[in-house]
Amino acid sequence: MNRALKTALWTIAFAQFLKIPLKKLETGKWRWAYFWETGGMPSSHSAGVSSLATFIALKRGMRTIDFALAALFGLIVMYDAQGVRKQAGELAIRLNELAEEVMRLEHNPKQAWYEKKKERIRERLGHQPIEVIGGALLGMFTGFLSYWWAKKK
User: Fold this and answer.
1) Are 115 and 65 within 8 A, CB to CB?
2) Domain tally for the chain?
3) Residue 34 and residue 21 share a domain
4) Which of the two ends of the chain, N or C, has the fewest CB atoms closer than 10 A to its terminal CB?
5) For residue 113, what are the contacts with CB-CB under 8 A and spacing of at least 6?
């Protein structure tokens, strides 16, 4: 596996891991399940594509097609992470609120479906802009470190 791909994959995993202690600071609870969840700080999508583009820029140069592809791919991923996916998460919040309101309004025992439905639609799908920026900065840092480490050897 090439170093650029390893850097991006390692950065994604590292960003996902960072969500655990950051959520602990926010909520006061350790939840290892945050490693597998989407959304939150930092954006692992942004971190991965930024580390890839940074590594390629340093290794091959910013005037190469390799960098152009990585940068364009990264911009699309980051736009999607905070745009389309965020909107889907906000829609899920509204649907969950609607289901709860219907449950409150209907006291008909035949409506057992609402009582049985314990699982809510997942609301954290996308990212706030600050989470995308945090992921991008983390990715640039890890891309630089990986390039520096490889050059040192």
Assistant:
1) no
2) 2
3) yes
4) C
5) none
pLDDT at 94: 75
Q: Judge contact between 58 and 116, C-beta under 8 A.
A: no
Going by C-alpha positions, the residue among 42, 132, 130 that lies closest to residue 80 is 132
Q: What confidence tier does 147 reach under pLDDT thresholds 50, 70, 90?
A: very high
Average pLDDT, the chain: 83
pTM for the model stands at 0.74
pLDDT of the residue at 24: 84
Domain that holds residue 105: 85-125
Statement to judge: residues 53 and 91 lie in one domain = no
Highest mean pLDDT among 61-65, 120-124, 147-151: 61-65
Count of CA atoms in the C-beta half-sphere (13 A) of 66:
14
Residue 118 has pLDDT above 60, yes or no: no
Q: Are residues 8 and 26 in the same domain?
A: yes
Tell me, what's the pLDDT at 139?
96
What gap in Å lies between CA 62 and CA 79, rounded to an integer? 21
Question: Quick one: 93 and 118 in the same domain?
Answer: yes
Residue 78 sits in the same domain as residue 89: no
Shared domain for 105 and 91, answered yes or no, is yes
